[in-house]
Specification:
Rossmann fold, 229 residues, 43% helix, globular
Length: 229
């Protein structure tokens, strides 16, 4: 690792290297996510077949990866949190899912597939990197996709607003009413301390890194991109 290399192990926002935080995250996601429907939508977008290998980066506690493993040949999951990966490995063993493996690694360092894969999935992870390192990460991802392979990327992405103060204040107030104060404060912390970027910046990065954006879907605070190399 070069002296100037960004250190992915320095957690931005919540420290999910902590076992208690990882477990709390897992329990929270179990309440708010429909993982089966999420995996179905991703598999359909990627046009997955039983012959395809998927690499999920920022796999967390493995729920989506384990669901995708039922829909393809193999899932390779990587994350910078050993605590998260320990939960994912336990789930795989308990559920007898044998075509999912979990390894320590992020966008810039650590685990890499031994050969190009058909699809890469990343959800709510790229914002942990400042913009320059997002670009470097996307450059690297392109080298690990087969020509014609697909990237499914979902993250917090900011659209252009006339008044960001009013926009974010309204957003936080609405979340507090609909999802509770804990979620509202977590979102405020994200905006304040993490590295989400503009949609036009991210889309420019994708294009420069050799991706073609096939679809873009906005879902409240989140944006999903389906791209092809």
């Amino acid at each position: 690792m070069h002296s100037w290399q960004y250190d992915e192990q320095v957690h931005v926002g919540v420290n999910y290297a902590d076992r208690k935080q990882a477990k709390a995250y897992d329990e929270r996601m179990a309440r708010v996510r429909d993982v089966s429907a999420e995996a179905d939508a991703i598999a359909e977008a990627l046009a997955l077949t039983s012959q395809d290998t998927v690499w999920e980066i920022g796999v967390g506690t493995g729920e989506c990866a384990l669901a995708l493993a039922l829909r393809c040949r193999e899932v390779l999951g990587s994350d910078i949190s050993a605590a998260m990966l320990a939960l994912a490995k336990t789930k795989a063993k308990q559920r007898a899912v044998r075509n999912a493996q979990f390894e320590l690694g992020g966008f810039l360092t650590g685990f890499r597939p031994s050969e190009p894969v058909y699809a890469i999935v990343s959800q709510l992870a790229l914002h942990h990197l400042p913009d320059f390192w997002k670009f470097r990460a996307l450059q690297g991802l392109a080298t690990h996709l087969r020509p014609g392979g697909r990237l499914f990327l979902r993250d917090v992405v900011f659209a252009e607003q006339a008044d960001y103060d009013a926009h974010f204040s309204t957003l936080i107030a609405g979340l507090s009413e609909r999802a509770g104060e804990e979620m509202a404060q977590a979102t405020a912390q994200h905006i304040r301390a993490e590295f989400s970027t503009f949609d036009w910046v991210l889309e420019g990065m994708l294009t420069r890194c050799g991706f073609r954006v096939l679809t873009k879907q906005d879902d409240g605070f989140l944006t999903s991109y389906l791209c092809e190399r």
